């Protein structure tokens, strides 16, 4: 586990382990009630709905790779560190390069950015709590970028799920909020 990004501290679980569990739960749900779910999904999304859920699962917690989150989780500290930006607000910074390799419509891209960024709270919650995009950009540069080498195993995991060279072709997007 040394060098891998942690997603959870108790019990200790790497990001790859955490997301693998989510993907397996998704497979199970699709097998048991997938048709019921698709019956309420708009026709334009039926063919891609479960693939979109997989993308959300793969990217939703990647922002946990930031230095402040890793320092906190490695020390079993439950309280956010001073200046720590919520991981879900950092996670979308990985999407632009993914979409360059796996193009999709603007509407789908917009939905995925929002689903990932706000999987813990609403947009208004984050704005009311002072998480302006200036602070998010600063955290991407100062807290996430320096830790990218520790994310290499996870980026290769994404490669394997989509058969794309994502781990060798990505740049963090500082302007994702424009999506």
Describe the fold and architecture.
A two-stranded antiparallel sheet has the order 1-2. The N and C termini lie far apart (34 Å). It has a single domain, classed as Hypothetical protein af1432. 26% of the residues are buried. α3 crosses α7. The model has no long low-confidence stretch (mean pLDDT 89). The chain has 10 helices and 2 strands. The chain is mainly alpha-helical and 179 residues long. The protein is globular. It has helices spanning 15-38, 43-46, 49-59, 67-74, 87-90, 95-101, 106-117, 123-128, 133-144, 152-162; strands spanning 6-9, 12-14.
Which SSEs are present, and which pair or pack?
Layout (H helix, E strand, L loop, with lengths): L5 E4 L2 E3 H24 L4 H4 L2 H11 L7 H8 L12 H4 L4 H7 L4 H12 L5 H6 L4 H12 L7 H11 L17
Antiparallel strand pairs: 1-2
Describe the structure using short key phrases:
179 residues, mainly alpha, Hypothetical protein af1432, two-stranded antiparallel sheet, 10 helices, 2 strands, 55% helix
Give a quick summary of the entry.
It is built from 10 helices and 2 strands.
CATH class: Mainly Alpha
CATH architectural group:
Orthogonal Bundle
Could you give a short account of the major beta sheet? 2 strands, antiparallel
Question: What would the average pLDDT be, to the nearest integer?
Answer: 89
* Stretches with pLDDT under 50, minimum 5 residues: none
Which value, in Å, is the CA radius of gyration? Answer: 16 Å
If you consult CATH, what is the topology?
Hypothetical protein af1432
Helix content: 55-70%
Beta-strand content bin: under 5%
Counted beta strands = 2
Count the domains: 1
- In whole angstroms, the N-to-C terminal distance is 34 Å
User: What sequence of helices (H) and strands (E) makes up the elements?
Assistant: EEHHHHHHHHHH
Helix/strand/pairing class, anyone? mainly alpha
Tally of alpha and pi helices: 10
The general outline is: globular
Spatial order of the strands in the main sheet? 1-2
């Amino acid at each position: 586990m040394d060098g891998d990004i942690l997603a959870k501290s108790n019990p200790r679980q790497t990001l790859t382990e955490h997301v693998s569990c989510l993907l397996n739960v998704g497979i199970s749900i699709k097998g048991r009630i997938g048709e019921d779910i698709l019956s309420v999904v708009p026709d334009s999304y039926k063919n891609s709905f479960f693939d979109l859920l997989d993308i959300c699962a793969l990217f939703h917690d990647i922002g946990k790779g930031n230095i402040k989150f890793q320092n906190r989780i490695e020390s079993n500290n439950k309280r956010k560190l001073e200046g720590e930006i919520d991981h879900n607000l950092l996670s979308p910074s990985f999407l632009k390069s993914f979409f360059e390799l796996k193009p999709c419509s603007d509407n789908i891209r917009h939905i995925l950015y929002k689903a990932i960024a706000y999987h813990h709270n609403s947009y208004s919650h984050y704005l009311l709590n002072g998480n302006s995009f200036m602070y998010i950009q600063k955290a991407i540069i100062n807290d996430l970028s320096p830790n990218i080498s520790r994310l290499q195993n996870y980026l290769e995991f994404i490669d394997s799920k989509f058969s794309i060279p994502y781990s060798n072709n990505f740049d963090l997007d500082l302007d994702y909020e424009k999506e």
